[in-house]
Design brief:
By secondary structure, the chain is an alpha/beta fold. The protein folds into 3 domains: 19-44 and 192-196 and 296-404, 3-Layer(aba) Sandwich (Rossmann fold), CATH 3.40.50; 63-190, no CATH class; 206-295, no CATH class. It contains 9 helices and 19 strands. A 6-stranded mixed sheet has the order 11-16-17-3-18-19, sandwiched between helices. Strands 2-1-5-6-7 form a 5-stranded antiparallel sheet. Strands 4-8-10-9 form a 4-stranded mixed sheet. A hairpin with a 2-residue loop joins strand 14 (261-266) and strand 15 (269-271). It starts with a strand and ends with a helix.
């Protein structure tokens, strides 16, 4: 179980969101959709760097042994380090100082992450530009440590997940560095291990793929789950696209993706990447990330943007067909909302879906009927109906005038 509660962050006054295998957030421009999706990404702590965490590992002997790490003890023993991590991640992901996230007119903002056994409360103080936190409950994670004692004065460690178990290999005259890598692993699993790793796709900005050669001079892809060089959130999706050849489903184009270049073919000939539409690039990015077996969650912003109506419906069907990922989608489109509900109902997965709408700063759950019918979206349906009514009345009025 994972829930997010948000109070007075950006334009969001109040939100209480249950994170299920399928979540859709609906809202207008600048309503706070990206803030919610970024908070979901941030609180997975999948990018927690290796830091000098203090962990009581007891006596580590040469050979293989298993130990249990308390999440609460890890955070409490490293309060300043954890506070530094929160502050740095807020700056990196939001490209803003923490106090800038607090709703205008409020003194503080709050974020809570609630799991079956842990509650993390993050408090952001506007006046002091400070980040504080409380942690309640506890969870213990098992770690296998393989220690090869040597005369090296430097401690060397590496970690890998094998069959759901975290294994750390350590070599040196001491095991101090083991705590550094173990701490980062424990945090990346503590608040949502079934959701991590997550890929963030800011779909409306994926046109940057057209600038791919220049961008790739700065980025190595793909990167392992433990990120040694955190990327701006805008570029997060690039590290989850493995080099290779892809057939893009919506257009039928063949796209060959390499760290140095993108090649696009249609039939027997190549197409200059600059002539390919933004909609195709964003569809390719979504499909390529979806094929990465490592990714457990896809956080997608506005997948319908830049797509024609027929392509939007095909995108709905494609997203609903993904069964091995958790999906967290923001949208302006009622077709996206209705379509996903309809497709999941056909698959018998309607229970996995939660739909939320941002209404005047409050995030409200939208009821879903037993057959997948969705209640009218207040930020979309009435606006369109009113405009349609205006058009019809004007047309009828003009017709009556012409008849006279």
């Amino acid at each position: 179980m994972r829930r997010l509660t948000i109070r007075n962050i950006g334009p969001i006054s109040k939100a209480d969101i249950e994170i299920t295998p399928w979540v859709i957030i609906v809202g207008g421009n600048a309503s706070g959709k990206t803030i919610i999706s970024t908070i979901h990404y941030l609180t997975l702590f999948q990018s927690a760097p290796s830091m000098p965490w203090r962990i009581n590992l007891g006596t580590i002997r040469a050979g293989v042994q298993e130990t249990s790490i308390s999440v609460k003890e890890l955070i409490e023993e490293n309060r300043e380090l954890f506070k530094q991590l929160l502050t740095n991640e807020i700056r990196r992901l939001f490209n803003a100082e923490p106090h800038g996230l607090v709703k205008i007119g409020e003194d503080e903002g709050r974020i809570e992450v609630i799991t079956d056994s842990l509650v993390l409360s993050v408090i952001i103080d506007r006046r002091g530009n400070a980040v504080g936190f409380d942690v309640n409950g506890d969870r213990k994670l098992s770690v296998i440590i393989e220690y090869a004692k040597s005369n090296y004065t430097q401690c060397i460690s590496s970690g890998v997940v094998e069959d759901g178990q975290y294994r750390v290999s350590v070599m040196g005259s001491n095991t101090d560095c083991a705590a550094h890598i173990i701490g980062s692993y424990v945090l990346s699993r503590a608040f949502g291990d079934t959701w991590s790793p997550a890929a963030f796709l800011a779909t409306e900005r994926i046109a940057i793929l057209a600038l791919h050669p220049g961008i790739m001079r700065l980025i190595l892809t793909p990167e392992p789950v433990t990120i040694s060089k955190p990327l701006p959130l805008l570029m997060d999706f690039l590290r989850w696209i493995a080099p290779g050849e892809y057939r893009e489903e919506l257009s039928g184009l063949t796209i060959t993706y390499q760290p140095s270049a993108i090649t696009i073919r249609s039939g027997g000939g190549n197409i200059p990447p600059s002539l390919v539409s933004t909609g195709i690039y964003q569809a390719f990015a979504i499909e390529a990330v979806a094929r990465n077996p490592i990714v457990r969650t896809m956080i997608i912003e506005e997948p319908e943007i830049n797509l024609h109506a027929d392509a939007e419906i095909r995108m709905v069907r494609y997203l609903a067909s993904i069964r091995d990922k958790n999906m967290f989608v923001t949208t302006h489109s009622e077709w996206m909302v209705m379509g996903i509900a309809h497709e999941l109902n056909r698959q018998g997965r309607l229970k996995d879906l939660r739909i939320y709408e941002i209404r005047n700063g409050n995030v409200v759950e939208v009821p879903i009927g037993k057959n997948g019918e969705v209640e009218a979206l207040e930020t979309i349906t009435p606006v369109r109906e009113e405009y349609l009514r205006e058009i019809i009345e004007e047309v009828l009025s003009n017709e009556q005038g012409n008849n006279h």
